[in-house]
Amino acid sequence: MSLLQVQQLQRSFGGVRAVDGVSFILARGEIAALIGPNGAGKSTLFNLIDGQMAPNQGRVLFDGESLTAWSTAERTRRGIGRTFQVAQTFATLTVLQNVQLALVAAEGGALSITDLLWDLRAEAGNALLAHVGLQHHAADAAASLAYGDIKRLELALALAAKPRLLLMDEPTAGMAAAERFELMRTIVAIAEANNTAVLFTEHSVDVVFGFARRVLVLSRGRLIADGAPEVVRADTEVQRLYLGEEA
Ligand code: ADP
Ligand code: MG
After folding, report:
1. Spacing, Cα 205 to ligand 1 middle (Å)
2. 7 strand-pairing partners
3. Distance from CA of residue 115 to its chain's centroid?
4. Any atom of ligand 1 within 6 Å of the Cβ of 9
5. Model confidence over 135-187: pLDDT tens digits?
6. pLDDT of 39
7. Ligand 1 within 6 A of 15 CB?
8. Which end of the chain is more exposed for a tag (fewer CB within 10 A), N or C?
9. 219 in contact with ligand 1, CB cutoff 6 A
10. Is the CB of 75 within 6 Å of ligand 1?
11. 197 Cα: distance to centroid of ligand 2 (angstroms)
């Protein structure tokens, strides 16, 4: 059975059809890029999948079950992880404490300050930090991290809930090229090791075609292409869209 089924999703804001009848299926472990110009509806589509917004029409199935009645928190618990275009962390806590909080939250618990002092989940937290390459920053305040490291921390926070689907909105935004590729290599390695499906948005064409096994193209809320990278790259409508953007 497919992991994610998006069926005829539609969401409008006033007169703007941000997501306009989008359908696709994502298999377990599939690594797909969602691309399209600014305003195409990518973030809105993520919001509809993770439950931050309700669709006007259509529905999303996860593991064959309709998500409609599930809150965002419940979707996270059931395996839908998300990172944001603008990273969200607790700035005054340490990097490790941020991950400890996420690990305990993923178990459905609430964390008190004494739990932090007692090093609850510190071992699991350190292991997660090692996975994303942040082990040397465990004791640093999250606020002190360089931009790229904040994105890594955000990835660790999303991974704490052991997602089966990871939605990543511009995971490499604002990064230099070398750092982008390094982070994407990390994401893909973790996803492959855990059979985690990843749907990510990304502006860099090199990153998209370097890492996605499948590319979905949104334009004005509609899916205009969906397929293997080389097929999508050769699509004349996609080429026109991107050439049009540069013009
Ligand atoms: P993308 O992530 O592809 O850049 P968005 O999903 O952010 O696109 O936006 C799609 C369209 O929906 C845009 O026209 C945007 O202005 C509009 N939009 C997105 N979110 C809202 C919102 N909360 N309220 C009103 N309009 C919105
Ligand atoms: Mg966006």
Report:
1. 22
2. 59
3. 29
4. no
5. 999 999 999 999 889 989 999 999 998 999 999 998 888 888 898 999 999 99
6. 95
7. no
8. C
9. no
10. no
11. 20
How far, in Å, are 95, 104, 165, 236 from residue 198 at the CA level? 24, 23, 6, 26
Please tell me the least confidently modeled range out of 9-13, 86-90, 158-162, 204-208.
86-90
Identity (one letter) of the amino acid at 108? Answer: G
Q: What is the mean pLDDT of the chain?
A: 90
Residue 100: both structure tokens together: 């400890």
Determine the Cα–Cα distance for residues 159 and 165; give it in Å rounded to an integer. 10
| Whether residue 226 has pLDDT greater than 60 | yes
- 226-240 burial, b at 16+ Cβ within 10 Å, e below that, comes to beebeebbebeebee
On the 0-12 / 13-18 / 19+ scale of CB atoms within 10 A, 1 is exposed
* Ligand 1 atom closest to residue 85's alpha carbon, by position in its atom list: 2
pLDDT tens digits along 30-81: 999 999 999 999 999 999 999 999 999 999 999 999 998 999 888 988 899 9
User: Whole-prediction pTM value?
Assistant: 0.91
Residues in the chain: 247
Candidate of 10, 11, 13, 38 to mutate for ligand 1, largest count of ligand atoms within 8 Å of Cβ: 13
The residue whose C-alpha atom lies closest to atom 23 belonging to ligand 1 is 13
Q: What is the pLDDT of residue 247?
A: 37
Of 16, 34, 45, 86, best ligand 1 pocket probe by most atoms within 8 Å of the beta carbon: 16
Given a cut of 60, whether residue 216 has pLDDT beyond it is yes
